[in-house]
Design brief:
Number of strands: 9
Oligomer: single chain
Strand content: over 45%
Strand order of the largest sheet: 4-3-2-1-9-8-7-6-5
Structural class: alpha+beta
Number of helices: 4
């Protein structure tokens, strides 16, 4: 029974290692031939050598599957290209009348972010967007034909930094953009291997005062991929 169990275990180990690297120096037992201590030891030494040789391959597979221990070291010195899109719709109402209006804004673009080893960052920013005020009473003529206020902007290769700050806790990358005040940080979600970062979500904010109510719905999504390290 012991010989059968040992043979099965050895076959399983050999099968697992065959997928990673070839085992050399192994001598298959012959039927009816007595095992010797030297022969068994030689076979196990061959297995040990092959297993040790697979260490780097296994580490690489673990990293690829998301088993990363230090995302801070991965982000430090790296450059990410981030693509983003967002917008909002705001409904306004007047507390003193039945007047209602809406404003829409859409924007999108991309940015290159370098996270420096001293925990500052630099950014090269590109964005295009448009704001439209749907207030019906804007620039109306005698026939009640009205214009809507519209504003378009475009930023090309706008740079900032080094400045601001960044830090990593778990899979959360906290960023304070250059020129922003503490308290305005944004939190990206990092993939387990640090190659992808994501920021997104949506929300509704309603504010009411003596003049009326502003009811705004906003959505935003940013996805970035790691390009290189310094």
């Amino acid at each position: 029974m012991k010989k059968i169990i040992l043979t099965g275990l050895t076959a399983a180990v050999l099968s697992a290692n065959a997928m990673a690297s070839e085992v050399t120096g192994y001598t298959a037992p012959q039927s009816g031939q007595a095992a010797t201590a030297a022969g068994v030891d030689a076979n196990f030494q061959a297995l040990i050598t092959a297993i040790n040789d697979n260490n780097q391959r296994i580490a690489a597979l673990e990293a690829a599957s998301g088993e990363v221990t230090d995302l801070n070291a991965i982000v430090s010195g790296a450059t990410y290209q981030v693509f983003f899109s967002g917008g909002y719709i705001n409904n306004s109402s007047d507390s003193q009348s039945t007047f209602r209006s809406s404003q829409l804004e859409r924007f999108g673009g991309n940015t290159l972010i370098t996270f420096h080893a001293n925990n500052t960052l630099s950014e090269t920013f590109n964005e295009v967007g448009r704001f439209i005020d749907l207030e019906r009473e804007h620039s109306c003529d005698q026939f009640n034909n009205c214009e809507h206020y519209s504003e378009t902007w475009e930023d090309v290769d706008q740079t900032s930094g080094p400045g601001g700050s960044w830090s990593v806790s778990g899979q959360t990358l906290t960023v304070l953009w250059p020129g922003d005040a503490p308290g305005d940080e944004e939190e990206f979600l990092l993939s387990a291997n640090g190659s992808i970062l994501i920021l997104g979500g949506g929300g509704r904010n309603v504010e009411t005062d003596q003049f009326g109510t502003q009811d705004q719905v906003e959505t935003f999504l940013a996805v970035g991929t790691k390009l290189s390290a310094q």
